[in-house]
């Protein structure tokens, strides 16, 4: 922040305090941000397209149980301040494409970072609700990298079930036996539902597809976005 040379000492002090506050406190939720001085090298993928990212240790430790375990113990990663990941570099970078966001959800589960995982789940939902599309071609990837009761699987099945019953989608050739089984069960369970009159479960704000702990708070509540979304929803509903 630049200062006017004509400002007096008191004004300079106030400006400095304001600038410092801007750096240390998130503007909307008043959560403290402490980056610390320790830097961690995260090497994403060990093949030819491997990339290296430098990340503040405090951010990793405070948000991921995976990184906390690796960086706070007597492990090699902690001593060398370096953590290898097998994921594609595009997953770790800031890529807004829906397929990459699906990989972000899977990465969030591996890193045991529920806030990142749940936020990454909501983002493609918002994107596809606006565009009308959904990366169904990623279902085999989701099923290959998640467990049987995973909520990301549930999201894909719900989306496919809803649009199939609406006559919008047909089953594609790339589905696996496991995905077809879950879709078939979902369709059978909903055969008596009047879906034309209902709202799709992925079209309304909820924690239906989140994995945060039952006793814990949703990331929206933690970071002050829940009220904003509620206000935005009410605004859309007004005639």
Automatic annotation (TrEMBL):
Region (Disordered): 1-25
Signal peptide per UniProt: none
Domain of life: Eukaryota
UniProt xrefs under InterPro entries: SKP1/BTB/POZ_sf
PANTHER family: BTB DOMAIN-CONTAINING PROTEIN, BTB DOMAIN-CONTAINING PROTEIN-RELATED
Protein name per its UniProtKB record: BTB domain-containing protein
Provenance organism: Aulographum hederae CBS 113979
């Amino acid at each position: 922040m630049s200062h006017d040379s004509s400002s007096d000492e008191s004004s300079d002090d106030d400006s400095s305090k304001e600038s410092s506050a801007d750096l240390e406190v998130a503007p909307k939720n008043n959560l403290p941000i402490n980056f610390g001085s320790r830097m961690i090298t995260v090497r994403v993928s060990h093949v030819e397209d491997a990339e290296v990212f430098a990340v503040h240790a405090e951010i990793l430790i405070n948000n991921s149980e995976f990184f906390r375990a690796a960086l706070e113990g007597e492990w090699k990663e902690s001593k060398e301040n370096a953590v290898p990941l097998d994921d594609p570099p595009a997953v770790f970078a800031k890529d807004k494409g829906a397929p990459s966001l699906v990989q972000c959800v899977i990465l969030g589960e591996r890193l045991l970072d529920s806030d990142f995982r749940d936020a990454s789940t909501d983002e493609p939902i918002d994107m596809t609700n606006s565009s009308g599309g959904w990366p169904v071609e990623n279902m085999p990837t989701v099923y290959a990298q998640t467990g049987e009761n995973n909520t990301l699987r549930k999201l894909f099945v719900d989306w496919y079930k809803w649009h199939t019953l609406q006559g919008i989608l047909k089953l594609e050739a790339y589905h696996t036996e496991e995905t077809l089984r879950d879709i078939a069960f979902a369709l059978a369970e909903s055969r008596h539902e009047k879906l034309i009159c209902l709202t799709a479960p992925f079209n309304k704000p909820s924690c239906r597809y989140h994995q945060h702990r039952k006793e814990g708070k949703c990331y929206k509540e933690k970071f002050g976005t829940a009220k904003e979304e509620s206000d935005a929803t009410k605004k859309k509903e007004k005639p």
